[in-house]
Design goal:
Shape: globular
Helix content: 55-70%
CATH topology: Serine Threonine Protein Phosphatase 5, Tetratricopeptide repeat
CATH architecture: Alpha Horseshoe
CATH class: Mainly Alpha
Strand order of the largest sheet: 1-2
Largest sheet: 2 strands, antiparallel
Oligomer: single chain
Order of helices and strands: EHHHHHEHHHH
Structural class: mainly alpha
Distance between the termini: 6 Å
Length: about 220
Amino acid sequence: MTVSRDGVLQWLRNCAAVIAENRLYLIELDAAIGDADHGANMDRGFQAVLKKLPEIADKDIGSIFKAVGMALVSTVGGAGGSLYGSFFLQAGALTAGKMELDLSSWTAALEAAINGVILRGKAEPGDKTMVDALLPALEALKQSDNLDEGFGAALRASAEAARVGMLATIPLIARKGRASYLGERSAGHQDPGATSSYLLLKAAADTWELNGVMA
């Protein structure tokens, strides 16, 4: 089973919708340990992506991801712009020329995307960042691929791993970003970046597997 280019475009539309729906929630999370702008910034960025999609709908998946990355870099303020921009730019590099994705190619693209985030933000597991949601999601994909469990099951496992990783940021003391200035006071709060990462990966599962967009 594969995800078509149209499936990728629908995922991006759904990402914009889920970020808009959770805008205030992300703002609330960021208000506790950051600048209270993560929800507004992410919403602005994905609304820009939404407007860009008609111009790039006839391109290959790699070109679409690269255009998304550039849109996020240019419209999302703070660290989120460079981190999510790097995420999609690196995913685009791994999917250049592709018109569909299978489990292996999506796993490779996600790994490249996460490596881009790590390189840009210098974050490690346990730093209380989006990496704490993304890395478990990647490992779940790899395990599902190795076990030949199928794309749908892999997507569900990946989203669930991201959710668990997101919740695991609550007791952590932040070691990166604005939240790190709070020291021990950052403990007890869920990381907003890990939350937005989970929302995007859950949107992939909801779009591609639950809604039957897979070819």
